[in-house]
Amino acid sequence: MAYSYYTGIGCMHWNRSLIDIQEYSMDGVADLFIRLAFSELAANDKKDFPVAAIAIAVSIGSIIVILCGYVFWKLLAKHRERKRKSEAFLREASPKFYQGGMIIDDINQVKIEDITLYSFDMLANATDRFHSASKLGQGGFGPVYKGKLPDGQEIAVKRLSQSSGQGLQEFMNEVVVISRLQHRNLVRLLGCCTERGEKMLVYDFMPNRSLDAYLFGSHQEKFVDWSKRAIIIEGTGRGLLYLHRDSRLRIIHRDLKASNILLDEYLNPKISDFGTARIFGGNQDQANTIRVVGTYGYMAPEYAMHGRFSEKSDVYSFGVLLLEIVSGRKNSSFYDDEDELTLLAYAWKLWNENNIIKLIDPKIFDSSFEKQMVRCVHIGLLCVQEYAEDRPNVSTVLSMLTSDIAELPTPKQPAFTGGHASPQQVSSKSQGSVNADTITVLEPR
């Protein structure tokens, strides 16, 4: 039952009852070892286990909470620092957006905090590290990638290349201008990224890419019928009217063209690329610049030659776009074998020959819409007249398109139709890719 050992006595053991044992409090006594049933030992262990387990669990849990809190704090601090640097970059860059006295609006009216700032890693992951398979197109500014955010939202990421003709001013134009606009016919800017020396813009993804792909590019075989083209014309006009008259700002786009008209899943048009846009304030109706930017073939003559731009210079670009949509032909290409005429000159020649039907894209020609098609060509010629004062404003153009104005004035000779196409026009080619950009810088005469 028990045993003990004491020096001088030796080993002692008990077989049945524990008798002749005494408990002493002094030193020099021997320890008594007692045999117990296993069940009695297990019962004691069970009593001790909960206390030990709870102590261990609390200790481990506390360590985990502290570690998680530290990691979260580090991530939050990193996020705040990244956001602070991005906001500092945008604020520092903002005054450059107003150089030249052409923009009469206060940057402080735009809350930088309201602009979503994406991290480089998020956009890299969304585009599969900017993989070539995610690439939607290539413009003068750099590539555009399709991406998907963690919540499943599809986006288009415009990544400004280091060698781009566009710089900080164009980037800030897009960030500041588009963030203040909201219209169903304008592309929506979701945010931007300025980390690691990058300048990237994030937009809603447009599944049908750009209009030029349907008119003269890779989607040409999927031709758009006249009813849809008429909707694209009117929608683009309404977007332009919003820029000129209906928004809080008066904005001149300065690079309206087929590749800058993006199409959503229903082929509704969205005006994009505001890198060269300018804001007018007060009673300002025109401005001059020594830095002419845009695309040959769409530039109004007063802008291309003298650096003078206004609402009417956008109207000129809209007129070129309208003629391209109706005809399915590029203004930068040549027609009529004998004279090698540009689209504007060719349209003017057919107008004078009373043979404007020949200009209409044969894929969409329908005698039931013939009158409407001819009317659009007529309006297009009114928009591309040489002198700005002869061109209608956008609100008048829309009234003409919707037949609110029944009788149209006779157009005068368009600009750049006095002879053969200029070498500048010869060298200019539309790229037919999403948001394609052929920004050029000229010194006006």
From TrEMBL:
Source domain of life: Eukaryota
Family annotation (InterPro entries): Kinase-like_dom_sf, Prot_kinase_dom, S-locus_recpt_kinase_C, Ser-Thr/Tyr_kinase_cat_dom, Ser/Thr_kinase_AS
E.C. code: 2.7.11.1
Residues annotated as transmembrane: 51-76
Keyword Phosphoprotein attributed: no
Residue span(s) of domain Protein kinase: 130-416
Pfam families, sorted: DUF3403, PK_Tyr_Ser-Thr
EC class (word): transferase
Catalyzed reactions: L-seryl-[protein] + ATP = O-phospho-L-seryl-[protein] + ADP + H(+); L-threonyl-[protein] + ATP = O-phospho-L-threonyl-[protein] + ADP + H(+)
Record field: compositional bias (Polar residues): 422-438
Alphabetic keyword roster: ATP-binding, Disulfide bond, Glycoprotein, Kinase, Membrane, Nucleotide-binding, Serine/threonine-protein kinase, Signal, Transferase, Transmembrane, Transmembrane helix
Matches recorded under PANTHER family: OS06G0693000 PROTEIN, RECEPTOR-LIKE SERINE/THREONINE-PROTEIN KINASE SD1-8
Protein name per the record: non-specific serine/threonine protein kinase
Organism from which the protein derives: Solanum verrucosum
Lineage: Eukaryota, Viridiplantae, Streptophyta, Embryophyta, Tracheophyta
